[in-house]
Amino acid sequence: MQLIINTYGSYLHVKQSSFEIKVESEKKRISAKKVDSILITTGSAISSDAVKLALENNIEIQFLDQFGRSMGKVWHSKLGSTTYIRRRQLELADNEEGSDLIKEIMVEKTENMIKHLYDLGIKRSQNKQDYLFEKIEEMEELKEKINKLTGPIEIMRSTLMGYEGNIARKYFKALSYLLPDRYKFKKRSFQPAEDEFNCLLNYGYGVLYGKVEKALIIAGLDPYVGILHTDGYNKKSFVYDFIESYRHHIDRIVMKLFSRKKVRKSYFDEIKGGLTLNKTGKEILITELNEYFEQSTYYKGRQIKINNIIQFDCHQLANHIIEEGD
């Protein structure tokens, strides 16, 4: 489970070898064995003993800003990429093996989007199904164009990102079409979001970035050595590359919140240029995220928790990189 600290003035410390959260006069104790990560989203205090207990149990402590983006993490010093894997990652950026990997990620991302639209079309009216299938056909055509691209990533980059952006526009237009009228949106908006849907999506993606970065590092991969996304100072380029296959999980969670009428205008605060998710909204979304990622699914020939899929894929990629380099 994720331990969420989102109440101003909270104090996280250790009591009898367990975490204890104190909020004013209320206290709650949680075993370290039940915690995967600790998310801190507001003004709180954490004791050095709580930090040590987290490190001893390989629990990351992550600080998030108001949009759900990771501001920084505390984790065990032994985690880190191996020199050999880092060299191999650098090589991938300059040859067609790297191009093939990125194409594979983009195709999988598109297939996940299409599967999501198919699932949303079940039990919809015929008119809505027709609209969704029209968008799906258009996305399938663009996916095939991605499959046909060849050459090093430097040559493919602009064309590939153009196809990716076109697919995304069709996908999000379809999602907006299915929302209640008062929640429909014209386009993807980022920081800040211009509407409730994108506000929830952005915060969920922020949490997902943290999951992907952690999984890459545990597998020995370097989150800063990208292929499609170019390198830059303090830019986690490979996180941006690798996250694409998993965004659909957040999309599904957010769409489910709307379809089950769990979204309220009161979950959002107005800020300059858009909206931000408030404390209540974050609690609702994080609860849904935790429940969803704890579910099991059949994935690549095995039954696995959704929460473990990213780590499984990162280890597979690391092993592939090593084997191809031998």
From TrEMBL:
Keyword line: Antiviral defense, DNA-binding, Endonuclease, Hydrolase, Magnesium, Manganese, Metal-binding, Nuclease
InterPro entries linked to this entry: Cas1 (IPR050646), CRISPR-assoc_Cas1 (IPR002729), CRISPR-assoc_Cas1_C (IPR042206), CRISPR-assoc_Cas1_N (IPR042211)
EC number from the UniProt entry: 3.1.-.-
GO biological process, one term: maintenance of CRISPR repeat elements
Family assignment from sequence similarity: Belongs to the CRISPR-associated endonuclease Cas1 family.
Reported function: CRISPR (clustered regularly interspaced short palindromic repeat), is an adaptive immune system that provides protection against mobile genetic elements (viruses, transposable elements and conjugative plasmids). CRISPR clusters contain spacers, sequences complementary to antecedent mobile elements, and target invading nucleic acids. CRISPR clusters are transcribed and processed into CRISPR RNA (crRNA). Acts as a dsDNA endonuclease. Involved in the integration of spacer DNA into the CRISPR cassette.
Protein name: CRISPR-associated endonuclease Cas1
Species in which this protein is naturally found: Halanaerobium salsuginis
